[in-house]
Amino acid sequence: MPWSNQGGGGGGGGPWGKPPGQSPWGQGPSGGQTPPDVEELLRRGQDKLRQVMPGGGFGGKGVALAVVLALGAWSLSGFYTVQPNEAALNLIFGRYVSKTGSGLHYNLPYPVGSVQKLRVEDRNTTSIGFNYRIDQRSGNQGTVDVPEESLMLTGDENIADVKFVVIWQIDPTKPENFAFNVRRPELTIKAVAESAMREIVGRSQIQRILTAERKVIEPAVQDLMQKVLDDYGLGVKIIQVQLQSVDPPEQVIAAFRDVTAAQQDQDRLRNEAEAYANRVVPEARGAAARIMQEAQAYREQTVAEANGQASRFSQVLEQYKRAPDITRERIYLETMERVFGGMNKVIVDQPASAQGVVPYLPLGALDAPPPTPGAARPTSQQGGAK
């Protein structure tokens, strides 16, 4: 593009007010190279600086003021703010000197000092046996299995596919350990988690891992991880270990499901049998106790009646010895009372030859229903006993 099309000012059509065909540094149209006038440039810079400085001079006071202002601006850059969920580590020439909590603080500015901030209140998640992945098309989050992390050997020489998640956070009391003791703490946490899970799974049998011991594995792995990380001085708190899935390998998962179903049926039948035994045995014991109590009561009743009859006989014998005639007549009357007490009878207080008694047939009794067994018969009495 020619210089004339660039637009210009002054008397020329070229840029920077130069005539057409001449460069800003004095290059003529002949193509010769002319070096820039450095002294002229320095002179112009000094003139502009004198205009800015007070008094229009650039002497020793001006330099000192500029240095003071520069030092002040540099010192003020040492203020920094720490958020409530953070902890700040103060470094001097790259060496850790102190830590601060939330709020406004000060440290020597760069390059003498520096500040490293860590989010000590945030909870971090480390997955073992799988990785999270976002589908580029749908945008949904999915998972990708990592068999080299999830396949583990059990104590009975079986293989279990274990996927779990570790939730952890930086220890607020020791954030400097997390920052300086280990180079890559996240990878260390993942390696320790996998190692701890392999150790715990290696002590157990696969059937118990698949069923009863899942809730036992989580706290055991958490305690083992915390102990190892404390020995490393990593400055990390393990919040929780969550098992996502514990399955046998895909090739034998159908057989393991059949075994698990059979064990569940076995447990169900055992529980039903125990429930039946818990119901029948107390009933049988109760019935046996009732029979024994009835027999005991019958024995005590029989013995008491026999003792009562013996005592009564002794008392009657004693009275008989004192008054035989009266006692004999009393015994006779009591015996007749027992014999005739339940019979239909008519007592006539007249001699047999006396008139006034007419015999008759009880025709009305022929239509009466037969008396029920054990029912008392009505008694008719006429006259008095003698």
Number of strands: 11
Low-confidence stretches: 1-33, 379-386
Residue share in helix: 40-55%
Q: At the third CATH level, what is the topology name of the domain at 124-248?
A: Tetrahydropterin Synthase, Chain A
What is the CATH-assigned architecture of the domain at 124-248?
Answer: 2-Layer Sandwich
Number of helices: 10
Shape estimate: elongated
- Note the main sheet: 4 strands, antiparallel
- Seen as an oligomer or otherwise, the chain set is single chain
Walk me through what this model shows.
- With 386 residues, this protein is an alpha+beta fold.
- Among the domains are: 76-119, no CATH class; 124-248, Band 7 domain (Tetrahydropterin Synthase, Chain A, 2-Layer Sandwich), CATH 3.30.479.
- It is built from 10 helices and 11 strands.
- It has helices at residues 38-52, 60-76, 147-150, 175-180, 185-202, 206-210, 214-232, 253-322, 324-340, 364-367; strands at 79-82, 86-92, 95-100, 103-106, 113-119, 124-128, 130-134, 141-145, 151-153, 159-170, 236-247.
- The strands form 4 sheets. Strands 6, 9, 10 and 11 form a 4-stranded antiparallel beta sheet that branches. A 3-stranded antiparallel beta sheet has the order 3-2-5.
- A hairpin with a 5-residue loop joins β9 and β10 (159-170).
- The longest helix is centred in the C-terminal third of the chain and has 70 residues, at 253-322.
- Residues 1-33 and 379-386 have low confidence and may be disordered.
